[in-house]
Design a protein that fits this description.
alpha+beta; 4-stranded mixed β-sheet; two-stranded antiparallel sheet; 7 helices
């Protein structure tokens, strides 16, 4: 099932919902379609609308302020776009820059996506100790960035330029 990005009335990313849920919100006049899938349409007995890719709520929804995105293994892989931080190949694991045995924590700034071979080769050492420099430094995404990146590369590439630029 494809995900649809939900924007607040102020155009801030709020969440993602299933396409069916997005269609229901549009049909109930709770949201408007900001961008649709060019080749997909949702059809019913009396309805024929383009399948929404991005919708915007008609009324502003107050969201409690979230200072940081929650850390997760999946989040690290998505943040690094499934690319190994050591060699650039497809990453399937998460590596701790400072190993947990040396006091490293599960944080955005201490974890990077890694291929299994490099993760095994680095083992229980820091990148400097292993002679394996990082291709890019880890960073902490904002909650909005984390949500936009979670859409996946194909969906992210199809977002409007003004929205994709915010998370790049």
């Amino acid at each position: 099932m494809r995900d649809t990005l939900v924007l607040n009335a102020s155009f801030e990313p709020l969440s993602t919902v299933t396409m069916n849920r997005a269609v229901v919100l549009v049909l109930q006049d709770k949201a408007v379609v900001e961008q649709a899938h060019p080749e997909l349409r949702m059809r019913g007995a009396e309805v024929d609308i383009p399948a929404p890719r991005v919708i915007r709520l008609c009324r502003y929804v107050r969201v409690p302020f979230r200072r940081q995105a929650p850390w997760s293994r999946r989040g690290v892989l998505v943040r690094d776009r499934h690319r190994c931080a050591y060699c650039g190949r497809r990453a399937t694991t998460v590596d701790h820059v400072v190993p947990r045995s040396q006091g490293g924590q599960d944080t955005w700034l201490n974890t990077v996506a890694s291929c299994a071979e490099d993760n095994h080769r680095k083992a229980n050492r820091t990148p400097e100790q292993a002679g394996m420099p990082l291709l890019r430094e880890p960073f902490e995404p904002t909650p909005a960035d984390a949500m936009l990146l979670a859409l996946g590369a194909e969906e992210f590439a199809a977002l409007p330029d003004w929205l994709a630029r915010e998370a790049a």
